[in-house]
Amino acid sequence: MTTIFAFDAATSSASCALLRGGELIGERVSSPGRLLDAAAELTDLAAIGLGEIDALVVGTGPGSFTSIRIGLATARALCYALGLPAAGVSTLHAFGGGRPVIDARRGEVFSEGPTLSRPEELEVAGVRLVGDGALRYRALFEAAGAEILPDGDPAHRPSAALLVAHAGAYGDAERIEPVYLRAPDAVPTR
Known about the structure:
globular; five-stranded mixed beta sheet; 10 strands; Nucleotidyltransferase, domain 5; single chain; alpha/beta; 5 helices
């Protein structure tokens, strides 16, 4: 049976999951900075050694530039160290129960497409929205006719287990491309 370690660190909440033979063994949600601690807790609890992992799935964004880079660097390091194949999947696939809306800061959100837009530009009438962007702009979205689940609903947090179902071909982690949707703030000086 294939054991897959999946994780996503692109949003305000990070998620990691272990699946064996397509069945969820366990999942943890943490802050992006505590992703490796959550992963270690998960593998310890499941009594799975790193050598038992057969493949890795990583969220590619959109989301925080720094968090995406941390996630991809972690995936590449693990794959290199353990000799694992990997697949990258859009972070938008880590949400279930509605249309994902991720807070992009600066008065913008990431959503399906993937797109980067101002929240008032999204057509949301009659649509259930999930994610930290849906929570941040709840009043605006509800006034436009969207349904937003209660703040504590788990649908607002990414689930790394959901990424696995969207993984395509597995291969070299170095080939996984991030999804940024916004130019970096830092620019080279002349």
